[in-house]
Amino acid sequence: MKILIVEDEPKTGDYLRQGLREAGFAVELASDGLAGLQLAQQQDFDLLILDVMLPGLNGWQLLQRLREQGHLVPVLFLSARDQVEDRVKGLELGADDYLVKPFSFAELLARVRTILRRGRSGVEATALQVADLELDLLRRRVSRAGKRIELTAKEFALLELLMRRHGEVLPRSLIASQVWDMNFDSDTNVIEVAMRRLRAKVDEGFEPRLIQTVRGMGYVLEIPEPTL
Amino acid sequence: MIGRLSLTTRLTLLYSLVSALLLLGMAGLTAVAVDRHFEVLDRDTLHDKIELIQDSVAKAGSATDLQRRLDDALQNHPGLFVRVDDAAGSVLYASAQFSFPAERVRVHAVDAGPAFFTWLQGEREFRALSAAAPAHAGLRQDMRIWVALDTLHHAHFISALRAALWLYAGLAAGLSGMLGWWAARTGLAPLRAMKARAQAVTAHKLDQRMPAEAVPVEMADLAHSLNEMLERLQRDFQRLSEFSSDLAHELRTPISNLLTQTQVALAQPRDAAAYRDILASNAEEFQRLARMVSDMLLLAKAEHGLLLPRTEPIDLADEVRALFDFYEALAEEKQIELRCSGTAVLSGDRLMLRRAISNLLSNALRHTPPCGRVEVVIESRPSAISLQVENSGSTIAPELLPRLFDRFFRADKSRAHPDTEGAGLGLAITQAIVQAHGGQAAVTSAAGWTCFTLRFPLS
Q1: CA dist., res. B314 & res. A211, Å (int)
Q2: How far A21 CA lies from chain B's nearest CA (Å)?
Q3: CA end-to-end span of chain A
Q4: Residue-by-residue DSSP string for A20-78
Q5: How far apart (Å, rounded) are the C-alpha atoms in residues B205 and B444?
Q6: Which positions in chain A touch B423 (Cβ < 8 Å)?
Q7: ipTM of predicted complex
Q8: H-type alpha helices, B211-335
């Protein structure tokens, strides 16, 4: 998966490149609009991450040029301005998502993966499995090591999200948005509490513990690497 | 063009123009009346003279006699000219060095009635009257008499009068213009006083007010409105500057924590786990800062009225139920009972309304002791829709109630806020959102129950 970042702020550009590389993507970085356009035309990228305010050619113009030339590459905008018009303009031009600075890197990564997953076709899974944890989407049943686990509707939705995206660190804001449709930061520890309760049902009494807290980032469901 | 002239200039010009017109009209009328009067006087004089000459003509024995009599009679009348013709057209008498206009003399038949006419000869104006004189024994033909009067002396008088009138009209117009200027200036003095006050108003001196009591009634309204405007500005400005200092304070604490922690971490080598710990703690602090910044941006947008990108009918009960789902885990953990009753549909922005109610619920959950209760009551009345969030717990002191919606306000200032505590912006955001929907947020607290009410008037 190859990503092009067009960002004029050197520090932001560098950490985005490093973060995305470490997340397993091939990343190119351009620091102005024209260089970005050139790169986007020369190489095939799976995703462009564009800052809106750029020297030379701004993010919107860049996207417009690309779309005029028939490039259908997905685009995620980064902007320091949180104006509804900006958001609408970006989406009208054919952007796939819009993130307002300051954003957390976990949030960006989660959105990048969402966009990249979108285009992929495939038969919708009816069951998910991580280690000995099984989730039956049709019958809405969960079992661990063959033992049935009773979950509430929201706990089921939360576990489904974690399992569908196992291995990814999911920030709290994304979890709140996907599971409860709460598209704003709550100033409470409600996600922690919900996660603690889910963990008590899913992980307590089983090995290995699958749901992990990544401090400062969010939560991830994965088979832990054996500690040395 | 007129629009750019000052009020004083405009009033001065208007005064001058009106008084000049009035005075000129008066002067014109006077001149015409005097002229008319002179004409009447002249006509009377000419009648007298005609009678005198008719008398002479009647007494004259012959043409020579007539000549002599008339010369005698006219000796003491300079400026009076006479001509007598007979029916045959021969001139019986004519004043020396004077000639009547030929067309006038010819047109009148000898036996016609008296005729009055005026003509100009050179620069002098003459008035003349003609009359018939019957034939008699001495002069055996019917005769016609013309008598003319030089009006030079009237002309002198009238031109002097005109000059005097012009001068007077000019002076008086000038004077009333000056009076107008003075009146306008003194009349507008309160306006200048207001201007001086307005100039004295700066960001640091917003306490200046217009002298509303000292200005005329017409301007008092304006002064009052300006004072109210200044009042509002001062209040908002005050809030804004308090907000910025609060903001600086709120940012200073976490930043100083981050700085200290990072510097302590760098002071000596540590193992990877310790670094990870410190970075994670920093990340949490940064997240809180980021949230504070976006909350403040939201409030700033609310001040500019940008909160409602789209409105749709929102079922408040549905929203509350969705939020109960969200807070369920938290409530169960503290064994707090969540209850909702009533329903209402309000036109608004879903995300914003949800956020407003969410802040009330999270606030209520935070302050409700374990095993307490949070109750939401939605009421739909013809005049308004209201949503109440009530929670059991401690009673809030009445003097603190109005300040609960202030930014960064926390009832307990001294307490170090744990991670779950917001920045003190939640209720301010709720209020901003409710106001953007045309509603009002209020709070009451008594007997161990605290109740927040959102009220949306329907109109």
Answers
A1: 36
A2: 20
A3: 31
A4: HHHTT-EEEEESSHHHHHHHHHHS--SEEEEESS-SSS-HHHHHHHHHHTT----EEEE
A5: 36
A6: 187
A7: 0.74
A8: 217-267, 272-303, 316-333
Residue A104 in contact with partner chain B when CB distance is under 8 A: yes
Nearest C-alpha in B relative to A158: B326
Portion 138-157 of A in contact with B at CB < 8 A: 152, 154
pLDDT in tens, B330-355: 898 889 999 999 999 988 888 889 99
- What is the token pair recorded at A135? 């989730």
DSSP letter assigned to residue A221: E
Two tokens, residue A133? 């944890």
Between the alpha carbon of residue A216 and those of residues A169, A178, B279, B288, B423, the distances in Å are: 11, 19, 8, 10, 18
Q: How many CA atoms lie within 13 A of B138 on its CB side?
A: 16
Count of A-B CB contacts under 8 Å: 86
User: Which residue is it, tokens 């008499």?
Assistant: B145
Contact flag A82-B422 (C-beta cutoff 8 Å)? no
- What is the distance between the alpha carbons of residues B339 and B321, in angstroms, rounded to a whole number? 9
- Give pLDDT tens digits for B19-43: 888 888 888 898 889 888 988 988 8
Q: Side-chain half-sphere of B301: how many Cα atoms within 13 Å?
A: 18
Q: Is the overall model pTM greater than 0.80, yes or no?
A: no
Asked if A15 reaches chain B (Cβ–Cβ under 8 Å), the answer is no
Q: Do A216 and B287 touch (CB under 8 A)?
A: yes
